[in-house]
Every structure is written in C-alpha cells, then in structure tokens.
Amino acid sequence: MAHRSNTSAANRIWRTIANHVATGLAVVSTILVVAPLVAIFVYLIYKGASSLNFAFFTQAPKPVGEAGGGMANSILGSAILLAVGSAIGVPIGIAGGIFLAEFGRGGRLANTIRFTADVLNGVPSIVMGIAVYSLIVLPQKHFSALSGGVALGIMMIPTITRTTEEMLLMVPHAIREAALGLGVPNWRSVLAITLKTASPGIITGCMLAFARVAGETAPLLFTAFGNQFWSANLNEPIAALPLQIFIYAISPYDEWHRLAWAGALVLIALIVVAVSLVRYVASRGILKGAN
Amino acid sequence: MGVGIQVTDLNAWYGANHALLGINMNIPANHVTALIGPSGCGKSTFVRCLNRMHETNATARVSGEVRIGDVDIYAEASPVEIRRRVGMVFQRPNPFPTMSIYDNVASGLRLNGFRNKGVLDEVVERSLQSSALWDEVKDDLHKKSGASLSGGQQQRLCIARALAVDPEVLLMDEPASALDPVSTAKIEDLIFQLKSQYTIVIVTHNMQQAARVAETTGFFLMGKLVEFDSTHKIFTNPTDKRTEDYITGRFG
Ligand SMILES: Nc1ncnc2c1ncn2[C@@H]1O[C@H](COP(=O)(O)OP(=O)(O)OP(=O)(O)O)[C@@H](O)[C@H]1O
Ligand SMILES: [Mg+2]
User: What pLDDT, on a 0 to 100 scale, did the predictor assign at position A68?
Assistant: First the structure.
C-alpha cells in the first residue's frame, strides 16, 4: 500500500512538472509565431504613420519635387484588381475543389487537376506575370487592369481548390448520408449540405488566397503595369499598392521612401480589414442561414 | 399509412464480400419488425438495401427483389424516390450542424424544392410533436442549432426530420444504442406511437428492446436470415437451435 501511494505521489509531481513544461512550450511557440507579425506592424507604423494624411487617401501621386500627393489611385487600383482576381479565382477554385472532393474522386481527371493545382501553386509569381503577359497583353498590344486581375485570379485558384477539397472531405460521412436518406439528389446534397457545412473552412481558404495575392508585385509588373493617374478602366494600365510601393521604395528620394512605408502599412491594414469584414459577414450569413 | 415490404432472394455484396445471402422476408405493414443478430451479420446492410442506401457505397452490389407496397424498388423507381418513401434513422444522431432545429426538420422538404412557409411551419410542429421533442424545443426552434441539443434530443430531432417528408416506412438502425436509458425509453415509447402510421423496421442489439417494441423479429447470422417469426415465438420457443443459443446468450 505504502509503495503504491509513493508512486502515485511521485506520479503526481511528475505530471505537474510535465504539465507546466508543456504549457510553457505552448506559450513560447505562440510568442514566436506572433512576434514577427507584431514587429512588422510596429515597424510599419513607426516608419509610415507620419506620412499618412488626408491627401494620402484622396489624391494620386504628384511628380518628383512637388510636395503632397497620395496613393488613393493605387488603393482603388488594388481594389479593382483584387475584385477581378476574386471574381475569377473564387468560383473556379471552389468549383475545382467540389469536383475533386465529390465527383472526380480517385479518377484520372481528378488526379490530373490535383497535380496541376499543386504545380500551379509552386509556379513563381513572376512567371505567372509573364504567362499572362503573353496570353493577354501581347495579343491586345497594351497593358490592362484586366490582365492584372486575371494573373491574380489564376494565382488564387490552386490554394482555393485544395482547401475546398480538404474542407469538403472533412465533412462527416454521416451528414452526407443524412441528406441522401431524405431523398435529396446527390448534387443538391453536395451544394446545400456538404458545401454549407464546410463553408467556414472554405471561406478561410479564400481569404488566405486573397491576402496572398493582395501583396503580389511581380505578376502585375507586365500586366497591370501601374499608373500614376486615376483609372478605373479595365482596359487601361492601372495603379496598384504593391507596384506603387515598389516604385517609391527603389527611388532615391527620402520623401518617396516614407510614402513607400506608409503604402505598406495601408496595404497590410486594408488586407486585415478586408479579411475581418468577410469573416464577419460570412459568420452572420451562416448564422442567418440557420434561422 | 404504412405499407408492407416483400423481400425476395436478396443478395448484397461489398466488393467480393458476400454480405447478404438469399434473404426472403415479408415485413407486415403498420407493425414494428426487429432485426437482431451478432455484430457483422448483415443487419445494417439489410436495412440499407430497403431504401437503396447500400448502393451509395462505391463497391456495393445488390441482386434480388424488394417490393415496398406495390413498387419493385430496384426495377421501377429511382433511389431518390424510394428514399422519400422510406425514411431512415441512423445509429449516431446526425443533425445538420449548420442548421437550426427548425431548418433541420424542414430540410427534407426544402431540399426538394418545397417553399410554402405556412405549410412548413405546420409540418415542423407536427413532426416534432410526433417525435416527442416539441415541448423541449418549441421556444428555440430558430435560435438553437441542431448540434447543440443533447444526444437523445438529437436522435429525436433526426426522427422528426425523417417524419417530415411523410414516409410510409421508417428504418431505424440501432437508434438508441448511443443513448442513456431515459432517452432510450423515450425512443421506445415513440416507436410504439408511430407504428399506427408507419411500417417500422428496427435493428437492435438489445434483446429486451426487441421484445418490448416489436411484434415480429428476424434473427440474422453470417449474412443469412435464420428465423423470422412473431417476437413472442422467437423469444419463448424458437424453431432454430442457433436462434435459441443467441437469445439465451450462449454466443454472439
Ligand atoms: N462500408 C463497408 N465496406 C465494406 N464492407 C462492409 C461495409 N459495411 C459492412 N461491411 C461488411 O458487411 C458485413 C455485414 O456488415 P453490417 O454492417 O451489415 O453488419 P451488422 O449486422 O449491422 O453489424 P453491427 O451489429 O456491428 O452493426 C460485414 O462482414 C462487414 O464487414
Ligand atoms: Mg450495423
């Protein structure tokens, strides 16, 4: 008896220690993950916040030497490019994921699509820019917002397809059976039940893809090209935040460097706002669907 | 109103595994029929052949004839039509997690294109009444998700969901095996009430349960139907030695 209670006392101490160690490790790794993010944000605010003013959000850039000006046309341009990109990437990406998970499972076509998506995911973004350049810009003989949006859209597809597939496969078999057992046709059960059940994860995947391409510069260099002036025309070159940041950052002027920092701060802030907004709306929408 | 089910020479396979061998069974309308037998003997496979759920398995195959009412379900109807007439309740409660209680019950009708709000309200209330859940959830119909209920409540929600499409037959595959005794008793009461309107086939591992709820009982063993008779006869004076061994607990 004495022996047994001894072991259990030792066990208890050992468990307590192990517990603290595990908690400590979890805290340390959390800090390691969050620290760079916080550091980047703080540094951007430190470098860029002072250049943010009303003009920054309302005006296009001024020529070198003239004071003032802003990046409003780039913000609009990025919004348009991302809207075009999402309009292409989200539906095609989700449709691809649905096909992989629900209809093509294990088939030759599905394997080909899955492989293509993985390869596409690994293609450097500059190559994507060149590809779209030769597919759209060269035949049209001019740079355009449309071609930039297409480049971003194509880059979104593989991430969205693979997350959609994974999220759909995670929906329990029992849920699919419940729908089929009610006499619901398979396609309808996939769209109304499986997809809906998986939608929080799919939305996360879309936001991930969105945030990734929002900061892309390389694929826009030969497509959207950039524009110092206001434009909302899909057939003309268009400004974009990453492009403008790039131009400012490699310039020799201190004033422009400061603007580049401010642009980077605004870019990250806008991505955070856009992602939070979509999440908020989506969570409300899904709950509302439950009503 | 329930309809009878006639099964003639039914065979089912999973790939090369011959899971059901030449089953013949005459399931009476508006009665409760219990299916018992040791694990893996084919009870679930059998009930899944009665609403063509078996064929949703990629490797599955079926031969033979199943008549529900006067329809030969494999020759004369689509799986979708059959599953609307033959409701199913599964072993583990499986409410749609993203849907409210109301939407869960209404789902079968809605997903088949039915939209009339007034009628839906009525059907949802009637189904929840029939599944003895109404009083517990009537104030939270839209507020709570189906997944937020207790296990026993979830199972009664799944029964309500199955009843809402107005089937003639209700298949229940161990509907109470994941539930506590109180919830089990509720489900059994429910089965008792429902049999006036539906033909019920229930798979159970619980012999007392079979004896309590069913008029007719079938004993399966290794893919064969060994004995099919009135529950009283099966439990007091079985014809087959293997049935007797099983119900007296000598194997299985
Ligand atoms: N999805 C499946 N894929 C392949 N084989 C299966 C599948 N489901 C069941 N089987 C096989 O079919 C046979 C009958 O299984 P079934 O599930 O019908 O038994 P059961 O009587 O319902 O058992 P239990 O009481 O454990 O639920 C078993 O040999 C089993 O291995
Ligand atoms: Mg079973």
Answer: 79
B14 touches chain A (CB under 8 A): no
pLDDT beyond 70 at B251: no
State pTM to two decimals.
0.85
Looking at the fold, whether A8 and A135 belong to one and the same domain comes out as no
**List of chain B residues whose C-beta atoms are within 8 Å of the C-beta of residue A182:** 83-84, 87, 107-108, 111, 161-162, 165
* A119 vs A283, higher pLDDT: A119
Q: Which CATH number applies to B5-247? A: 3.40.50.300
Q: What percent of chain A has pLDDT over 90?
A: 81
- Claim to verify: residue A10 and residue A59 sit in the same structural domain: no
* A64 and A185 within one domain: yes
Would an 8 Å CB–CB cutoff place B115 in contact with chain A? no
Query: Do residues A167 and A26 share a domain?
Result: no
Supply the pLDDT for residue A270. 92
Among B224, B232, B229, B226, which Cα is nearest to B246's?
Answer: B226
For residues A158 and A273, state if they share a domain: yes
A238 and A102 in one domain?
yes
Is the same domain home to A211 and A113? yes
Ligand 2 geometric centre to CA of B43 (Å): 6
- What mean pLDDT, rounded, does chain B reach? 93
Average pLDDT, stretch A265-289? 82
CATH of the domain at A145: 1.10.3720.10
**Predicted ipTM beyond 0.85:** yes
pLDDT tens profile B136-177:
999 999 999 999 999 999 999 999 999 999 999 999 999 988
Q: Listing from the earlier edge strand, what are the strands of the sheet with B216-221?
A: B86-89, B169-173, B199-203, B32-36, B216-221, B224-230
Q: Which residues make Cβ contacts (< 8 Å) with residue B165, sequence separation at least 6?
A: A182, A183, B84, B87, B108, B109, B112
In whole angstroms, give the CA distance from residue A40 to residue B117: 53
What average pLDDT score do residues B212-235 get?
Answer: 96
Which structure tokens are listed for B86? Answer: 């033959």
Whole-angstrom Cα distance, residue A175 to residue A196? 11
Render pLDDT for A51-84 as a digit per residue (tens, 0 to 9). 899 999 999 998 877 877 889 999 999 999 999 9
Whole-number Å distance between alpha carbons of A152 and A83: 10
Q: Nearest C-alpha to atom 9 of ligand 1 is from which residue?
A: B45
Q: Give the range of the structural domain holding residue A28, as residue numbers without chain letter.
A: 2-51
A4-18, B14-28, B78-92 — which is least confidently predicted?
A4-18
CA distance A131 to A119: 15
Instruction: Decide: residue B202, CB within 10 A, 0-12 exposed, 13-18 middle, 19+ buried.
Output: buried
Are B100 and A178 within 8 A, CB to CB? no
Amino acid at site A238: I
The answer to whether residues A45 and A67 belong to one domain is no
**Number of domains observed in the structure of chain A:** 2
**Atom number, ligand 1, closest to the C-alpha of residue B220:** 21
Q: Check CB contact under 8 Å for A183 and B108.
A: yes
